[in-house]
Amino acid sequence: MVTSTKQTSREVVECLKVISDPTRLLIMKLVEQKEYCVCQFVDMFAISQPAISQHLRKLKQAGLVKEDRRGQWRYYSIDESSVHSHLVKGILNHIDKEDEQFNLLLSKETPVNCK
């Protein structure tokens, strides 16, 4: 359950800095709906695995996503218990469902094929 928790201005600024990157913002929009594997993000964003991992590391350090390790692979979903969850979800709600970049990413989504 998410409760709206008051935060300091510094905490809000740090959260906003993390999601101000377009790739991280779109990752958050994706994981808002369901869990994704790193390999899926690599395919969808067409960037290297180390680059995706760096984006995910920043999101995880900010407490915005949670990681589920399954063997050598990592799966990510939104951290509903995060103190920033209410703030981030409010921002994500402002992204139009017809957003071109978001829908392009969705069109590139493939089933999990990492083993």
From TrEMBL:
MF terms in GO: DNA binding; DNA-binding transcription factor activity
Residue span, HTH arsR-type domain: 4-98
Pfam family, one: HTH_5
InterPro entries with a match to the protein in the record: ArsR-like_HTH (IPR011991), HTH_ArsR_DNA-bd_dom (IPR001845), HTH_MetalResp_TranReg (IPR051081), WH-like_DNA-bd_sf (IPR036388), WH_DNA-bd_sf (IPR036390)
TM region(s), chain numbering: none
Signal peptide, first to last residue: none
Domain of life where this protein originates: Bacteria
Name the record gives this protein: Transcriptional regulator
Classification of source organism: Bacteria, Bacillati, Bacillota, Bacilli, Bacillales
Keyword Ligase (UniProt): no
Keywords: DNA-binding, Transcription, Transcription regulation
